[in-house]
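Objective 1.3, modelling of assemblies. Example input:
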Amino acid sequence: MTQSTDRPWPVWEVFTQGKDGEPHQHTGSVHATDAEHALQNARDAYARRNEGVSLWVVPSAAITASTPEDMGPFFDPANDKVYRHPLFYKVPKGVKVF
Amino acid sequence: MADLALFGALARIGDDRLVLGHRTSEWCGHGPILEEDIALSNIALDLIGQANHVLTYAGATEGAGRDQDALAYFRDAADYRNALLCELPNGDFGVTIVRHFLYGVFSVLQWDALSKSTDETLAGIAAKSVKEARYHVRHAGEWVIRLGDGTAESHRRAQDAVDALWAYTGELFVQPADESALVAAGITADVSLLHATWQSQVASVLHRATLTVPASGWMQGGGRTGLHTEHLGHLLAEMQIVARSHPGAKW
Amino acid sequence: MTPPPVVAEDSMRLAEFEARIARDESIEPKDWMPERYRKQLVRMMSQHAHSEVVGMLPEGNWITRAPSLRRKMILIAKVQDEGGHGLYIYCGTETLGVDRHDLVQDLLDGKAKYSSIFNYPTLSWADIGTIGWLVDGAAIVNQTMLAKASYGPYARAMVRICKEENFHKRQGYEIMATLSGGTGAQRAMAQDALNRWWWPSLMMFGPHDADSPNSDELMRWGIKRKSNDELRQRYVNLTIAQAKAIDLTVPDPDLRYDEASGDWITGPIDWDEFWRVVKGNGPCNKERLAARQKAHADGAWVREAAMAYADKKASRTTEAA
Ligand SMILES: [Fe+2]
Ligand SMILES: [Fe+2]
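Predicted structure (tokens):
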């Protein structure tokens, strides 16, 4: 009867910000047909216990992820660029806040 | 100090939320999709939570030693003061959502007004509850738009729900005569003053949902004085069975 | 039982994969994995998700009769959490390239399994206490182990779920403690519920290791970290102490304490009953499935309305552009 028209709802990825100032982190996903509903569903499923102060929802289909095969070419070159990391730099003793 | 007028007003406020929350909880495990099941449960929890606060306070104002559970579980239907709209069966998802929307818009307006109450306890409960009610309206309103402007079937069901429930909306805005002293003292809000805003907010969402606002006709009433539909008795029979089978027991 | 041969899979990749498992690395969705690992995960995770969702029904049966407002709110929140658990685990399963819609359809068609414990009826308010205490208690033992499962999305869902399960167990145990210390009728209700749920709760861990066809493979690949019998024993040891503390007795005349191991040894489990319920002849198998089918069928027009609205909105935006 309704079987044929019962199309699956698209998946959205949910990102929650735990506290003000923290980055948004991936927490899971929900099914929804549009952004407003995705946001509401994310709120009801992933922020029931005050787990977040802010939510992002992104259609899963819109996310492009690197593959494990990219591992080498994507990330190895960064391994020898220590100068990108703050700990590479010497700070005079006693200077704590940077 | 017993304040029976305030007790009566609080019963009206609390019973609405208790009965509607109870109805909403009947959906738990039976929603149209998992996400919505979780959403409806949240709404049920908010409403019963509101009722819990209001009835606790009602019991205190009555001064007869009844707590929120004595009020919820050991009053008969004739002593309940909820609006009839809240006790009607859930019907399909369309009826459930349209009721949440129609009641929710009222609820936001009422809590908002009560948050300015001169009674600090009531104002405190209202300030917290109005935030919850705003979310309920957002949730239900967005669904009303999707159902109204979805498929031919969902449009028909949503319009049927609006038409069926409309006659129960008038009661929400009839200001009970026995609350005039409370209103004068700024303790409770005159609900009749909320009607115009309610009508325009409801009409604007129904319009977006491509639904028709019913012509105003006969409005059912009686809940505020304890004259209910046949449905409330069954609801309470179920709700109260365990508590009443073990009078005096702790749970 | 011998697993089917790994066809056309490069043995180097398999060796690499098993080395990763041995190093306790987390396997992520896009990583290479043996087809058999993926299949086992889909089977196990979807069964787990179905169990959470079907599990809403026996407890949901008492929401409208909960005897105090506090209990009513706790129970709604608890049953709602189980729906959330189902949602998290379905999402985890979807990372393996299957669609929740299809998994749910398998459940509705009676092709998928879920935990047999939910095919028993909830007959009194004390059943709500017993389920929280025993069923969620058993689930915690199982899920604490699964939080270390080799598949990242499953393990992460379990971490989240375990936090919520503690609340479930505590509220159940609190109900039982209150009933046990209550009126005579309440006490009798509590003992009766324990009598009915004790043996089915032991069966939740599945058959003995020797009779568990999937166990070896699941353990070799780090999906399960402990055997059914090890987990069951841990659950028994924890629960017997808890029953004594609230003055209730588990219905097992053969129960004895083994000094040497420090374990409580139970009498024999009725595996005929276990298999009978698994095969569909438990007291509530038909009702549970019918309830899920009804909710799904009744909701079809709602789900379709949301899709239709989104389609319209999308085409309106395109027209406007
Ligand atoms: Fe769970
Ligand atoms: Fe649980």
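Chain B has one domain: 4-245.
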